[in-house]
């Protein structure tokens, strides 16, 4: 038995670990287990001998593909599909805002159905339908239904929550797995820093309509410098409504004179956010957050490999945060998705790997954060290889989490 080429051995705050970069699986090891894994990394250990040392560990490693000898090609698993550039709101820092907002013609139903078919054929298991505001399209139920018919496992609609109707929700029931509603305040009295107008009561009504229709509901606040301490209040709101939540980190390009500049978190705010997140622990309402209690290994964010984004005009990008002409992978109007994915990767794509990111090579957590978000580097410094501007958040989070795990390991030994 010998580890495959995607396996890495590393330490996490004094805890020896083994990770499989092909699937992200990570496992903590005892001293005995680490010694065995070191042998797996450099020699072929007889099966019986390995199991005599630790049969349970060997079984877990085998199940997680640690002994696969063939290099695993990255699998496309997730995609964003922007079905319109129309929107009835003007939110500060919107990732999909560009010059075509409310000025371009929507693609036809037939075109989007074809895009969805191609995404499914490419292996996409999780589809996020976004915009603009997707509920402005009359054919939204048909698009979601087609995605499920094509075998896409999870379909999530991301909405501002102001255009939802009971009738459309009824058509989505049984097809949409979840509808994520963006919030800009945990109460009707909270200051709406992103939207300018507080629509809390309207959004709560929308969430309740979603639940009444039998569709999963999810809330997503945007976290920034002025609300980092509100995460527990959002978690309480989610629990009260009976829904799950995650959060997005305000990530956008802004100048010193821009009103957004005051919302970009500084180092103190980022470290406070890490502390707030850890204080929530394994809160059952928290789902799909940018970092979480389940450790995974990676060397990049996965943009362009494990995930892609299709813009409202059919252009394919590596992720929904990098809708810029210089990062376009191709257009579904001119060629198939298969042709785009099979083409040799553009020269800049290698820069998404943490090995090429400033400050990552010597970082103790590089295999956990994967170099962070490359889009934030573009927004802050204008290139793909600068340190993530939210690096302080991730370092604080993993440092504190490692200390907690080390203390638990000591208590159990």
TrEMBL record:
Key words of the record: Iron, Iron-sulfur, Metal-binding, S-adenosyl-L-methionine
Domain of life per record: Bacteria
InterPro entries for this protein: 4Fe4S-binding_SPASM_dom (IPR023885), Aldolase_TIM (IPR013785), Elp3/MiaA/NifB-like_rSAM (IPR006638), Radical_SAM_PqqE_MftC-like (IPR050377), rSAM (IPR007197), rSAM_sf (IPR058240)
Example of a GO MF term: catalytic activity
PROSITE patterns registered for this protein in UniProt: RADICAL_SAM (PS51918)
Matches recorded under CDD domains: Radical_SAM (cd01335)
Domain Radical SAM core, chain residue ranges per copy: 73-289
Any Pfam family the entry gives: SPASM
Protein name: Radical SAM protein
Organism the protein comes from: Adlercreutzia caecimuris
């Amino acid at each position: 038995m010998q580890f495959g080429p995607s396996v890495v051995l590393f330490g996490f705050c004094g805890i020896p670990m083994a990770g499989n970069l092909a699937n992200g699986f990570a496992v903590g090891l005892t001293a005995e287990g680490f010694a065995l894994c070191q042998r797996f990394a450099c020699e072929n250990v007889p099966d019986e001998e390995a199991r005599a040392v630790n049969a349970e560990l060997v079984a877990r490693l085998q199940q997680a593909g640690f002994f696969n000898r063939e290099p695993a090609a990255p699998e496309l698993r997730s995609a964003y599909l922007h079905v319109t550039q129309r929107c009835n709101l003007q939110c500060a820092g919107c990732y999909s805002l560009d010059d075509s907002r409310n000025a371009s013609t929507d693609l036809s139903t037939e075109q989007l159905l074809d895009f969805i078919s191609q995404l499914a054929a490419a292996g996409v298991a999780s589809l996020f339908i976004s915009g603009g505001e997707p509920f402005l399209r009359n054919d939204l139920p048909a698009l979601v239904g087609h995605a499920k018919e094509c075998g896409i496992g999870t379909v999530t609609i991301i909405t501002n929550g102001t255009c939802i109707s009971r009738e459309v929700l009824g058509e989505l029931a049984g097809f949409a797995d979840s509808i994520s509603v963006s919030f800009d305040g945990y109460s009707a009295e909270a200051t709406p820093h992103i939207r300018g107008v507080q629509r809390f009561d309207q959004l709560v009504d929308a969430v309740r309509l979603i639940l009444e229709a039998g569709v999963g509901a999810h809330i997503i606040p945007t976290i920034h410098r002025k609300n980092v301490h509100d995460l527990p209040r959002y978690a309480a709101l989610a629990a009260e409504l009976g829904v799950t939540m995650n959060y997005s980190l305000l990530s956008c390009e802004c100048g010193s004179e821009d009103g957004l500049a005051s919302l970009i978190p500084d180092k103190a705010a980022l470290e406070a956010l890490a502390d707030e997140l850890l204080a929530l622990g394994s809160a059952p309402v928290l789902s799909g957050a940018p970092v979480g209690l389940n450790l995974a290994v990676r060397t990049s964010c996965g943009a362009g490999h494990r995930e892609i984004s299709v813009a409202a005009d059919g252009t394919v990008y590596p992720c929904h945060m990098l809708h810029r002409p210089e990062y376009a992978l191709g257009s579904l109007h001119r060629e198939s998705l298969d042709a785009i994915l099979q083409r040799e990767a553009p020269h800049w794509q290698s820069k998404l790997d943490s090995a090429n990111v400033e400050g990552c090579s010597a970082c103790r957590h590089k295999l956990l954060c994967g170099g962070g978000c490359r889009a934030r580097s573009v927004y802050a410094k204008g290139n793909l290889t600068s340190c993530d501007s939210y690096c302080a958040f991730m370092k604080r989070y993993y440092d504190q989490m490692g200390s907690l795990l080390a203390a638990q390991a000591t208590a159990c030994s």
